[in-house]
Amino acid sequence: MPPFAPPTNQDGPAWEPPAADSRLAKTAGASPSGVFTSDLSVSEYVLLGEAGFEPLGFVVGSSIYHVGLQIGRWGRNQELQVLTQAMYNAREFAMARMRAEADHLGADGIVGVQLRMQMYAWGQSCLEFVATGTAVRHLADQGAHRAPDGKAFTSDLSAQDFFRLLAAGAVPVAFVLGTCVYHIAHRSMLQSLRQAYQNQEMVQFTQGVYEARELALDRMQAEAAQVGASGIVGVTVEVKNHVWGEHATEFLATGTAVRRLAAEHKLPETTPKPTFTLGLDH
After folding, report:
1. Which tens digits make up the pLDDT trace of 88-112?
2. pTM (2 decimals)?
3. Which of 149, 154, 226, 262 is the 20 to 30 Å CA partner of 175?
4. In total, how many domains does the chain have?
5. What does residue 227 show for φ and ψ, rounded to 5 degrees?
6. What is the CATH number for 189?
7. Residues 232, 176: contact at Cβ < 8 Å?
8. Rg for the chain, CA atoms, rounded
């Protein structure tokens, strides 16, 4: 079990800006006369319809977070746990608020989830974490595709991959992540001079990076187990340096946790399959 559990402050992640209520009230998910909003391309919109889903609204979650200071030992590999906890909490707040907007619309899930960071000139010591996606609902089987906790699933899969997953009899459960901010030890001047003319593995660096990456992957995997998934697809591991200096690095592992559905929920064989058309016009 990873040492960094989701934030326990229910007021934090559940809070929605009042402005969101007004916007969401005018979308298709909240009003029969409302219009849907989405970040889907035309092809993705059509493909979701063929899979039996309709878009409800573009949903957003945000958290501006101050990352506290932590000192690492100059010559030692070690995780910077204060920074890891901050980066994890901020992302979870953003994801929870996005999911709350989807629940507000009665969605079965959120597709095309994107999680990004940005900084503002007026808050250089703070980072904003923004989670976005399109809330969707199944036209015939409402509720059957939701996560085991009864709430909307989240997924960063493209509409094409989402379609193929449904055709195979599976469904997303949650967009899962694991993070680790790690201090890679410095080398002394003597060590650098000794290795200047030699081909050899940098064992200290290898061990530090290896441990940091494994911690991130292990936490992502633990998240998937906690939400009742049977596996994770589309796993990626990113390395981010942020503002902590060149020897403090964040490893971020992400993916979509999935589970198998009952046979009656599998897309019928007659469902159109995605095709690729290459035009010959110049």
Report:
1. 999 999 999 999 999 989 999 999 9
2. 0.80
3. 262
4. 1
5. -95, 5
6. 3.30.110.70
7. yes
8. 22
